[in-house]
Task: structure prediction
Amino acid sequence: MKVLVPVKRVIDYNVKVRVKADETGVELANVKMSMNPFDEISIEEAIRLKEAGTVEEVVAVSIGVQQCQETIRTALAMGADRGIHVLHDGDLEPLVVAKILKVLADKEGPSIIIVGKQAIDDDSNQTGQMLAALLGWGQATFVSKIDIDGENIKATREVDGGLETLTVKIPAVLTTDLRLNEPRYASLPNIMKAKKKPIEQVTPEDLGVDPSNRLQVLKVSEPPTREAGVKVSDVGELVDKLRNTAKVI
Ligand code: AMP
Result:
């Protein structure tokens, strides 16, 4: 069984994101970029399935600029077997990503595609769902636990106020939630080994997908700055401010 794992290159989650002066997007120059945290969880889960003997091959796919190869190398250093880089210089919306992944899935024939539940840059939370629809496969989204039993995957999902357990037939698309696992750090020997693992490079056009967007970003702006707080001297003053200034009681 083969697993395909899309890995997106995004601004590192520790970086304080700055909006460009012209409000057309966020500053990317000289900013640390890393693998989307949910995709690290997907890679970790795929590798664990391989270590358990359920899966034979883990293929990492990244779509975007040339530097996405670094993201794929990280996946290879964690334990993925090979990479596919779909080279595209420019913004990509989830539907285009899903169409590209659909063509790769048709070509590669994976049994499972493990997608992050959302990319922390656009927060779209759309790609996995669109991919499952394009493929006509079942999907289990926001999974926090999976068990593979023959042709079925038993998946526990995080839903509002609790957990839902369902089964989905293979082939299937899964999207990963934070609590599925804790991704490993790549060891130095594995980082060295990853340099020799193959990465195939193609373009959306090679795959017959038009990468142009249907969505247009009109404006990106900073959230409003919080007003300074007020210190109250006693409970009476607090109640007075809540009643007469904030008017919430
Ligand atoms: P989104 O729907 O944009 O929130 O992204 C959800 C997931 O889709 C991510 O966690 C990735 O697994 C995958 N994905 C989105 N964009 C890309 C990309 N450019 N390259 C690889 N995977 C992607």
